[in-house]
């Protein structure tokens, strides 16, 4: 009996989510409880946990979050089912409480009262199902020999057991199965319809990118040294790291997209996609990096970005003299605070619409995002961007700054060893050590390699394409048998990067990448 009650609670909860998914097709994907609650958890996850999740699960962190939420939901729903009785609706009250909370969060996520509907209607369906299933279980309970039957009364137990299969259990199991089927059907239908309705991939495939004012010059032959195992100079869209807080990739169509520039400006400006089309874009190479990139990590990539100069767009609105920050907002409520000076000092800060010759991939911000050379993504690279709010650092606080990260995030000079890779054993003799080095908007002036605490020796560098992109480096080494420690470090015009190790929080990791390898004899 207890098991049936637990299962009833779980299928009733599944019905809540299934019906909610279906209603969310009309109320907006952001309002589905699974998404709205997940997004709220993401927004309130403590720094340490977030860092641990990113470093442990990488880009699967979102799947892990949903799995954890699923486990919690199953446990809570099972308990609610277990305590529910026809004349004691404790489980239903728990469902109702969940529904109210999810409705409030759904409405606020969707930005409209309609966002409450998925949770409310879903919960109503779930409570009806839980009540109906509980009534059947309670009605059958005496016949099924509930725990109230004294164990010593053998005849009573025997009678009730025999009645179990025939009278009581079949309608209960039927009800549970029907509820489950309905829940899964509604959920799948909601997902399919919602996906078809909002998916912008088809639209993206039809976007014809404008040509830049001047085409990018061809890369110098030595920009990419093409060493086996070494990261290519250009990162393909497929290989490009993805970091964001979005549990559902925002689907923003060019028709609905606009960029509003407001706040401390002379005149508010709203640009539609067609307004952009009347302007001429530029194309630039910029290496984007995440502040959460650990030493030797891969949350960094170099792409060719097509976009409109942010300094020109801002000039149309006319920032007031007291402004010193631009808070850029995305459709999903995320934001970044960028120093106004970084957007207007002449560097190639772009409102990007193209990445490596294609419209922005949807997960990289389609149809438009910011790319600012020299600044970590969390303070600059807003994807799905629709608003530039000109403001001041002492008035506004951006998403990650509220969560303990630095308000300002210039990219720190860094070095990565790509080859040889750690752990494996390598043969003795001539060995190519190679990697990448970056100091966006300052430029890499040199890379040095150290073997076993010996002297630092200069590596060979790829040709500098721009100070906004990384450079490859190569060092030839005659590997001798035994264990060796390899370190690398870079310099920018201000000097050699710091050897002091620091974690990614609050403004980026520092320290030299170190590799320990075994050389065979
Ligand atoms: N809307 C939105 N934009 C965002 C983020 C986000 O969470 N939401 N994350 C930022 C961070 S922390 C980084 S490092 C870059 C990563 O961009 P990519 O995913 O295209 O590599 O996007 C930035 N833009
Ligand atoms: Mo980031």
Mean pLDDT: 92
CATH architecture of the largest domain: Alpha-Beta Complex
Number of domains: 3
| Percent in strands | 15-25%
Low-pLDDT segments: 146-166
* Name given to the CATH homologous superfamily of the largest domain: Oxidoreductase, molybdopterin-binding domain
How helix-rich are the residues, as a percent range? 25-40%
Class per helix and strand makeup? alpha+beta
**What is CATH's topology name of the largest domain?**
Sulfite Oxidase, Chain A, domain 2
Q: Report the total helices.
A: 12
Q: Major beta sheet, specifics?
A: 6 strands, mixed
What ligands are attached or bound here?
Answer: the ligand Nc1nc2c(c(=O)[nH]1)N[C@H]1C(S)=C(S)[C@@H](COP(=O)(O)O)O[C@H]1N2, molybdenum atom
Q: Give the overall shape, derived from the CA principal axes.
A: globular
Protein name: Molybdopterin-dependent oxidoreductase
Keywords: Membrane, Transmembrane, Transmembrane helix
InterPro entries: Ig_E-set (IPR014756), OxRdtase_Mopterin-bd_dom (IPR000572), OxRdtase_Mopterin-bd_sf (IPR036374)
Domain Oxidoreductase molybdopterin-binding: 248-396
């Amino acid at each position: 009996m207890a098991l049936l009650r637990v299962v009833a609670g779980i299928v009733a909860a599944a019905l809540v989510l299934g019906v909610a998914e279906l209603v969310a097709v009309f109320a907006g994907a952001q309002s589905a409880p699974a998404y709205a609650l997940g997004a709220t958890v993401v927004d309130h996850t403590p720094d340490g946990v977030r860092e641990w999740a990113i470093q442990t699960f990488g880009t699967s962190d979102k799947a892990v979050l949903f799995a954890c939420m699923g486990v919690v939901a199953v446990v809570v729903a099972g308990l609610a089912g277990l305590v529910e009785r026809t004349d004691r609706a404790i489980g239903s009250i728990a469902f109702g409480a969940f529904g109210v909370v999810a409705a409030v969060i759904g409405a606020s996520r969707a930005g409209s009262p309609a966002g409450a509907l998925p949770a409310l209607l879903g919960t109503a369906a779930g409570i009806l199902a839980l009540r109906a299933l509980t009534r059947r279980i309670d009605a059958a309970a005496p016949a099924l020999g509930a725990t109230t039957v004294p164990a010593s009364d053998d005849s009573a137990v025997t009678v009730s057991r025999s009645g179990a299969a025939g009278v009581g259990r079949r309608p209960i199991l039927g009800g549970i199965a029907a509820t489950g089927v309905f829940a899964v059907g509604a959920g799948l239908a909601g997902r399919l319809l919602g996906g078809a309705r909002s998916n912008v991939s088809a639209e993206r495939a039809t976007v014809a990118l404008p040509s830049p004012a001047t085409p990018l010059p061809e890369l110098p032959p030595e920009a990419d040294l093409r060493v086996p195992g070494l990261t290519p100079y250009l990162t393909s869209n497929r290989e490009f790291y993805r970091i964001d807080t979005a549990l559902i990739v925002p689907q923003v169509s060019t028709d609905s997209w606009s960029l509003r520039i407001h706040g401390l400006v002379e005149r508010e400006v709203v640009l539609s996609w067609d307004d952009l089309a009347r302007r001429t874009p530029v194309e630039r190479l910029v290496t984007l990096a995440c502040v959460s990139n650990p030493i030797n990590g891969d949350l960094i990539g170099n792409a060719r970005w097509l976009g409109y100069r942010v300094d020109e767009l801002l000039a149309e609105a006319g920032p007031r003299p007291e402004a010193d920050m631009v808070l850029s907002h995305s459709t999903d409520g995320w934001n970044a605070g960028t120093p106004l000076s970084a957007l207007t000092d002449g560097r190639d800060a772009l409102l990007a619409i193209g990445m490596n010759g294609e419209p922005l991939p949807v997960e990289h911000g389609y149809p438009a995002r910011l790319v600012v050379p020299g600044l970590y993504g969390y303070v600059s690279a807003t994807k799905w961007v629709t608003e530039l709010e000109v403001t001041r650092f002492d008035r506004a606080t951006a998403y990650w700054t509220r969560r303990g990260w630095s308000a300002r995030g210039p990219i720190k000079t860094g070095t990565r060893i790509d080859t040889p890779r750690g752990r494996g054993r390598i043969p003795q003799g001539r060995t190519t050590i190679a990697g990448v080095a970056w100091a966006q908007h300052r430029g890499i002036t040199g890379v040095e390699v150290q073997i076993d605490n010996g002297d630092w020796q200069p590596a060979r560098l790829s040709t500098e394409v721009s100070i906004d992109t990384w450079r490859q480096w190569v060092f030839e080494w005659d590997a001798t048998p035994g264990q060796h420690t390899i370190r690398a470090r870079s310099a920018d015009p201000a000097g050699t990067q710091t050897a002091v190790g620091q974690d990614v929080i609050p403004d980026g990791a520092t320290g030299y990448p170190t590799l320990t390898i075994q050389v065979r004899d």
